[in-house]
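From the methods appendix. Each design record in this collection lists the tokenized structure first, followed by the designed amino acid sequence. Records were kept in a plain field format so they could be parsed without special tools. The example shown here is representative of the layout used throughout.

RECORD:
FOLD TOKENS (219 positions):
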């Protein structure tokens, strides 16, 4: 009847339609994702450092592991890059300047941490320091990736790391421990501030662009 004829017509029409294009969604990895990855890594390192710092300060012993120990910063500690910059002044810098400062600081801090890794007295502590150094190396590379994705040039690397010829060591054990104390303290401040930096930066940079491509099938 008429119903069967209409059904037959529709089937024939559908069979003769050209192949429909397939909708394929691909994500272009860009600066937004690189910034998010770097932010996540700074937060992970903050968490990791809390455990490492407690373990290392206990290794140094009193007074370094006492909660209220807050010594003045010695001239020797000035070799460690300081994060104690006025917050308004820091925020007034360009994104490029802040990223370059983070890159230089973590490259330098990594040199000092690797020196600690070779001096730690227990196998467990050396293992913890080695793992943290690997994570911090990842942060340095991640910051470099952010700078590259934003079109910023990388700054020059750090000068000679501690322990190399021409770099004087601490004159006594107490001052050596003081150097280690300030290294951990500054590293904590850098990570805290860097997390804020990358959180603000990811709000300024749009998320990764999603593009739609039509791929014709059967052609």
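DESIGN:
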């Amino acid at each position: 009847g008429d119903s069967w004829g209409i059904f037959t017509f529709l089937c024939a029409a559908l069979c003769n339609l050209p192949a429909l294009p397939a909708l394929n969604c691909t994500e272009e990895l860009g600066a937004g994702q690189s910034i998010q990855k770097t932010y996540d890594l700074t937060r992970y390192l903050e968490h990791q450092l809390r455990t490492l710092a407690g373990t290392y300060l206990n290794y140094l012993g009193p007074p370094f592991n006492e909660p209220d120990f807050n010594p003045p910063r010695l001239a020797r500690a000035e070799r460690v890059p300081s994060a104690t910059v006025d917050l308004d002044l820091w925020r007034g810098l360009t994104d490029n300047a802040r990223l370059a400062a983070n890159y230089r600081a973590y490259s330098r801090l990594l040199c000092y941490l690797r020196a600690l890794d070779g001096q730690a007295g227990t196998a467990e502590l050396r293992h913890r320091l080695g793992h943290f150094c690997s994570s911090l190396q990842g942060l340095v590379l991640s910051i470099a990736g952010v700078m590259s994705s934003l079109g910023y040039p990388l700054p020059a690397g750090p000068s000679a790391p501690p322990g190399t010829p021409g770099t004087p060591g601490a004159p006594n054990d107490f001052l050596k421990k003081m150097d280690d104390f300030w290294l951990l303290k500054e590293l904590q401040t850098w990570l805290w501030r860097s997390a804020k930096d990358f959180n603000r930066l990811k709000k300024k940079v749009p998320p990764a662009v999603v593009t739609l491509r039509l791929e014709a099938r059967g052609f």
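APPENDIX NOTE: The beta strands are 22-27, 210-215.
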